[in-house]
């Protein structure tokens, strides 16, 4: 009986370790350890920072950090904005990396970043500025969802 119990515990431990290693490896492959480069055709806002249309690199704020804090940099490698993000999951990964914006009239707010082929992306919480814009427009109102605009990225 004691041997059977030890065998069961050993198998459960081994199985748990295998599942953990598999999930860590797949999460690393879907992370923003390698930044995505995007050509944004319109001006947009990240938190309180308004950025002009142009080419940007979005990735981890620090080389050794995780995906929680993301940096939005211009082509010269200068950080233009940094923002906390949350994990978001989909069951339908896209072959191309993509960036999603919320649009209210002619104002755009960075909303999500998805690496190519990933089931896990990063989503930015609604900023105070976006909340003000969303609730101040009579045509939009507080309960109406913004239009989502997706920019796909060729890599």
Task: Characterise this structure.
- The protein has 155 residues and is of the alpha+beta class.
- It has two domains: 1-30; 32-153, no CATH class.
- Helices cover 24% and strands 39% of the residues.
- The strands form three sheets. Strands 7-10-9-8-11 form a five-stranded antiparallel β-sheet. A four-stranded antiparallel β-sheet has the order 1-4-5-6, with no helix packed on it. The chain has a two-stranded antiparallel sheet with strand order 2-3.
- The longest helix has 28 residues, at 2-29.
Structure summary:
This protein is an alpha+beta fold and 155 residues long.
Look at the helices and sheets and give the structural class.
Answer: alpha+beta
Q: How many individual helices?
A: 2
Radius of gyration: 20 Å
Report the portion of residues in β strands.
Answer: 35-45%
Q: Record the strand order, biggest sheet.
A: 7-10-9-8-11
Q: What is the number of beta strands?
A: 11
Give the topology:
Elements: H1 2-29, E1 36-40, E2 44-46, E3 49-51, E4 54-60, E5 69-74, E6 79-84, E7 86-89, E8 97-104, E9 107-114, E10 120-123, H2 128-136, E11 147-153
Antiparallel strand pairs: 1-4, 2-3, 4-5, 5-6, 7-10, 8-9, 8-11, 9-10
